[in-house]
Design brief:
This protein is an alpha+beta fold. It has 5 helices and 15 strands. The strands form 2 sheets. Strands 7-9-10-11-12-13-14-15 form an 8-stranded antiparallel β-barrel. Strands 1-2-3-4-6-5 form a 6-stranded antiparallel beta sheet, sandwiched between helices. The longest helix is centred in the middle third of the chain and has 17 residues.
């Protein structure tokens, strides 16, 4: 476990009063009705128009729509019922040890100026998070909205530290054989050629230039299977839809065409990150057969980027 993980575990225990994502029982209301139960919290979020999705009896998620960033958040009543825990899911870091020590130090140092918010790292789920807890007493919808706005504002203001393109990844140096003036890197074992055949899940993307995290009921558990020239999407073993696809690797980035039996076509771009991740840049919904000229999503071009991770 690296330095950030150890500090975050200690910080989470001290600041939030309970290990992160610990399953907690529903808190009963006090006799005077001052505290919300988890069920009442979900109802309040629903009344606020935030469309909460119940993950289990202890956690609900919402998608907060900000000015520049849409953020997936979890909301839960903590074990003793005295506090409500709000967590913003910022991004996935599959291998935290590849992140530079300097990048981790900058994130940790920023905690000192975030007020009641704190960066956290969930080692099990490989998630970089930002947490905030608020007193569960006389909590109104107006106050809860302000707390959610505070968390979203802090997450948005720190994008320069955690956004995917900005989080510095350390590159391992080449190992030299008999170092000298004419030494060359030791050849590495040739990797297998990449294929998108297999099973994948969609975990994030960009829409209208805004980073998205996908943790709603519509995307959780959806498996995309690519085999031969066909692709199918399933959720809980139920078929959602099927398509055909064709990839052309002659250009960079590669192109991918998707089409179904009804003649619906989409001309897109596909980019490989590594053997276990790839992303697709789709054209605007109203122009599905005009292939994107660049792998980028902005408010102007209306293109959408979806990122996929291999299911193992």
């Amino acid at each position: 476990m690296n330095y950030l993980m150890m500090v975050c575990c200690a910080a989470l225990s001290a600041i939030l009063g309970t290990p992160f994502l610990q399953s907690v029982p529903l808190s009963g209301q006090t006799p005077d009705g001052k505290q919300l139960s988890q069920q009442e919290l979900v109802q309040m979020l629903d009344n606020m128009g935030l469309e909460p999705k119940k993950i289990n009896d202890f956690v609900a998620t919402i998608l907060w729509h900000g000015d520049q960033l849409n953020i997936s958040m979890t909301c839960s009543v903590m074990e003793n019922g005295d506090y409500i825990e709000l967590i913003a899911v910022l991004r996935t870091i599959d291998n935290p040890d590849t992140v530079s020590a300097e990048a981790w130090r900058k994130i940790l140092a920023k905690n000192d100026s975030l007020g009641r918010c704190n960066f956290l790292f969930n080692e099990k789920h490989k998630k970089l998070l930002m947490g905030l807890k608020t007193r569960n007493i006389h909590l109104t919808a107006s106050k809860l909205r302000k707390e959610l706005e505070t968390l979203a504002t802090q997450a948005q203001s720190t994008q320069n530290l955690w956004f995917q393109e900005n989080l510095q990844i350390e590159k391992k140096p080449n190992i030299l054989l008999n170092p000298g003036p004419f030494s060359v890197p030791v050849p590495t074992k040739k990797e297998k050629s990449f294929t998108i055949e297999g099973k994948w899940s969609m975990y994030s993307g960009v829409e209208d230039g805004l980073e998205q995290t996908y943790s709603t009921e519509k995307t959780i558990g959806v498996i995309f299977t690519f085999a031969g020239e066909g692709m199918k999407a399933e959720q809980d073993s139920k078929l959602l839809y099927e398509q055909k696809y064709k990839i052309d690797n002659k250009n960079s980035p590669s192109t991918i065409d998707l089409f179904d039996d009804k003649g619906n076509m989409k001309y897109a771009l596909v980019r490989v990150t590594n053997e276990d991740e790839f992303s697709i840049c789709f054209p605007p919904p109203e122009q599905p057969t005009i292939r994107p000229k660049e792998f980028k999503s902005t408010a102007e071009n209306k293109q959408r980027i979806l990122r996929f991770r291999r299911v193992k």
